[in-house]
Amino acid sequence: MTVCPCGSNQHYADCCGKFIEGGVIASTAEALMRSRYTAFVTRHLDHIERTHAPEIREDFNRAEAERMAEECEWKGLEIRNVSENGDNAEIEFVIRFRRDKQDMIQLERSSFRRDDGQWLYVSGEINPQGPQRFVNKVGRNDPCPCGSGKKAKKCCGTTTVLD
For residues 88 and 35, what is the distance between their CA atoms, to the nearest angstrom? Predict the structure, then answer.
């Protein structure tokens, strides 16, 4: 069984795979968000491009997306907050990845819109509460570098390098 990279613990084909490769439309903004993360991990960049809202689709930089997908070792996705209001949604999430031999954490707040029943990515603000951080070794009792305020061992300790 291939577990979906989005963190759902479901089989890829039953989770994000059906949106990325199966032609199924995501029924929620969160499902679309998870499938977009998984598309980066699995390098299905057509899914990323096709789920951009029409007004920003021409801004999609495929070469940059390919470079990012190639250079990064994806470590995980954590959905922090989802707020849907009718045909609009905002999702705050954290992605963890390794790039240039550095463990990285990126916080993003993305906006989505439902057009004719299909959720689309509209915009995103990377690290809205501060700059991207390089993660140094973290002690088990140190605050988690993701900014949650929890101890590392109770939060991201499984994905963060601990002393």
Answer: 18
The closest of 40, 125, 58 to 48, measured between CA atoms, is 40
Rounded Cα–Cα distance for residues 122 and 108 (Å): 13
Are 57 and 66 in contact, with CB atoms under 8 Å apart? Answer: no
Q: State the DSSP code for 12.
A: G
CA dist 101 to 21, 104, 134, 148, Å?
A: 31, 9, 10, 24
Q: What are phi and psi of 50, to 5 degrees?
A: -70, -20
Query: Which pLDDT score is estimated for 158?
Result: 53
Average of per-residue pLDDT across 140-152:
75
**In the chain, what are the domains?**
12-126 (3.10.450.50)
Give the tens place of pLDDT for each residue, 2-52. Answer: 999 999 999 999 999 999 997 899 999 999 999 999 999 999 999 999 999
Cα–Cα distance, 48 to 61 (Å, whole number): 11
* Pairing relationship of beta strands 102-115 and 73-85 according to DSSP bridges: unpaired
pLDDT digits (tens, 9 = 90+) for 87-137: 999 999 999 999 988 999 999 999 999 999 999 999 998 876 555 556 566
Q: What is the dihedral of CA 83, 8, 142, 147, to 10 degrees?
A: -20
